[in-house]
Amino acid sequence: MAESDKNEFEGLSTQRLEAFSDGVFAIAITLLILEIKIPDSETLAHQSLFHYLSGLWPKYFAYVFSFIVIGIWWANHHYVFKLYKKTNHVFNVLNVLFLMTIAFLPFPTAIFGEYITEDKHRQAAVSFYAVGIFLPAIVWVTMWLYASFGKRLLDQRLSDSFIQYLTRMYLLSNLLYFIAIIVSFFSPLTSIILNIVLTLLYLLPPKKPEYS
């Protein structure tokens, strides 16, 4: 392989990766609503439709919260991919793993919405959900550390201080998500609140890139 061809191959564009990722995000975020079922006539024979719909509030909460979580990951995916100038095989595989965790999230969301109100299963449901939220974060920081090491895949003009800022932020968020998992074994409600606060923080506008 000629040197010019080799350099071109190793500097593949991220556009196809973003397009594929958008498709996975769209599917995952759509799957969330499928867990909220329409009642059949047998179910409504023992209760009113209003009572049935109002009793679904845990599933509504799980749906809305996970929708926001996936939406934030989608927005951050687009944000950080503006910082990546090329990709390679390892990075592609890491991105696939990240998308796998996103596609997995509807499952712990369904468990969370189904069992959050049951004392017997609440702790397990919250812990499983906290793990589901943590998985994208751990793969995300792995992707960033790989791509940012020596500015391997980043825009070379980015300042070192900006790269260090994002690294600290991603590592800190991973630590807090992990703490939320540990806390869930002792206080499920505190774990939920911690995850909500972390999610709301990610709703804030991201820092503008700084160039040297």
Structure, briefly:
With 212 residues, the protein is mainly α. It has helices at 3-10, 15-31, 41-44, 49-54, 57-81, 89-104, 106-115, 122-148, 160-184, 188-202. It has one domain.
What does this structure look like?
With 212 residues, the protein is an all-alpha fold. It has one domain. Helices cover 72% and strands 0% of the residues. The chain is built from 10 helices and no strands. Helix 7 (106-115) runs antiparallel to helix 8 and helix 8 (122-148) packs parallel to helix 10 (188-202). It is elongated and about 65 Å long. The protein starts with a helix and ends in a 10-residue tail after the last helix. The model is unreliable at 1-9 (pLDDT under 50).
Q: How many domains comprise the coordinates?
A: 1
Give the termini separation: 35 Å
* Structural class based on helices, strands and sheet pairing: mainly alpha
> How many β-strands, per DSSP?
0
Mean pLDDT: 90
Q: Which percent bin holds the helix content?
A: over 70%
Q: Which of globular, elongated, flat, extended, rod-shaped describes the shape?
A: elongated
Classify the beta-strand content into a percent band. under 5%
What does the largest sheet look like?
none
**Number of helices, where a helix is a run of at least 4 consecutive DSSP H or I residues:** 10
Unreliable segments of 5+ consecutive residues: 1-9
Q: Mind telling me the C-alpha Rg?
A: 20 Å
How would you spell out the order of helices and strands?
HHHHHHHHHH
